[in-house]
Amino acid sequence: MAITPEEVAETRNMVSQQNLDLRTITMGISLYGCTDERMDRMCTKVYDRITHTAENLVAVAEDLEREYGIPIANKRVSVTPIAQIAAACPDEDLSPLAHAMDRAAAALGIDFMGGFSALVQKGLGAADRRLIASIPEALAETQRVCSSVNVASVRAGINMDAVLLMAKTIREAARRTVHIDCYGAAKLVVFSNMVEDSPFMAGAIHGSGECDAVINVGVSGPGVMAAALEELPQSADLMEVAEQIKKTAFKITRVGELISREAARRLGAEKGIVDLSLAPTPAAGDSVARILEIIGVGECGGPGTTCALALLNDAVKKGGVMASSSVGGLSGAFIPVSEDAGMIRAAVDGALSLEKLEAMTCVCSVGLDMIAIPGDTSVETIAGIIADEMAIGVINGKTTAVRLIPAIGHAEGDVLEFGGLFGSAPVMSVNRFAGSVFARRGGRFPAPLNSLRN
């Protein structure tokens, strides 16, 4: 399907008036050829493989920005989960691999690199344990490296031993970076049903079913969506609202489709997916919360919010799949508290609670994202929050995730300042009645009945 001049002109207007950008071009790179028994040799292989494969990524992205007039906010790389290539190396500390990834990211001039990761939904292998133990140091000592661990899936259930281990790891990642507002925890996400082709950080990996090098694109466009909905009269019913969202999502996705085609062709890589997710920023007018309020919710978090978000998420997908033959990743609406000006306001006002956010994750594309919690929150409480979110993903057959930031030295009502796309995170209230037994029972939450699909 050809891109028409009219589409290009309309897109330019969305860029200049409504904050449209492509959130990211992410190159996925296979590292399976880099495994080695010696850490120093493996680090060299990883660095060389990444820098060689992605050497033109930034230049091509900048050329596309100039030629099409569409800002590309981030240039990123995702790699094979490091635990999967580190099994042959006996070293306990795997953080040197994170340093190699960080040096490669710096050499390429990219923003973030994902893949210091492990998939442990059914059990923890030796390399998985070593990687998880290395996460706090890896995130504290690198600037661009992101980490993710999948602890649950529909087919496996929930690895509760891994849930408790990740609760401890999140706290330690925050403690190791307390001097920079616990930023290490902001680069760490825990998943249920992790996807293998997401272009978004901190959870991007290059999955085992992917080719050697692939280009995945993440679109954005909350500002465009809000502007389109503001054109509707308040008398418009929800069917009309859904239709407007679908039409706008189609236009936004066409931008991602165009750029992903061109980027893949110029880089000699496979064209991957377009992720439809509406990704907010702290910039005024670029807010998913604002969209929900235009639909009619008094303030994000108030009664009706979950229904409005469900409508938005469903209509975005329906519109987006008509604009690309390769929709994938997470694809929906992100609700990261710190990265959305409307979410931040709602949290400060008391309209948005952690419990309401959990309810919203049942119908959005990810989960509890970029949420600062009091620094004295117990490991058992963090594990319980993770377990609750993983259960939503496992029972409902969807991707869910948790990115919590224990604000060491801070209490409810304080604010962590990250700057850039990560924005600022108000420290939110947490239910303190987790107890000490549930999180420490261990074992595995069995796979649900809906896992038997054959």
H-E order: HEHHEHHEHEEHEEHHEHHHHEHEEEE
CATH architecture descriptor of the largest domain = Alpha-Beta Barrel
Question: What general outline do the C-alpha atoms trace?
Answer: globular
What is the strand tally?
A: 13
CATH topology of the largest domain: Anaerobic Ribonucleotide-triphosphate Reductase Large Chain
Distance between the termini: 35 Å
Report the radius of gyration as a whole number of Å. Answer: 21 Å
Q: How many domains, as an integer?
A: 2
Unreliable segments of 5+ consecutive residues: none
Helicity range: 40-55%
- Provide the β-strand percentage band: 15-25%
Return the average pLDDT rounded to an integer.
91
Largest β sheet strand count, sense and barrel closure? 11 strands, mixed
Class inferred from helices and paired strands: alpha/beta
The CATH top-level class label of the largest domain: Alpha Beta
Number of helices: 14
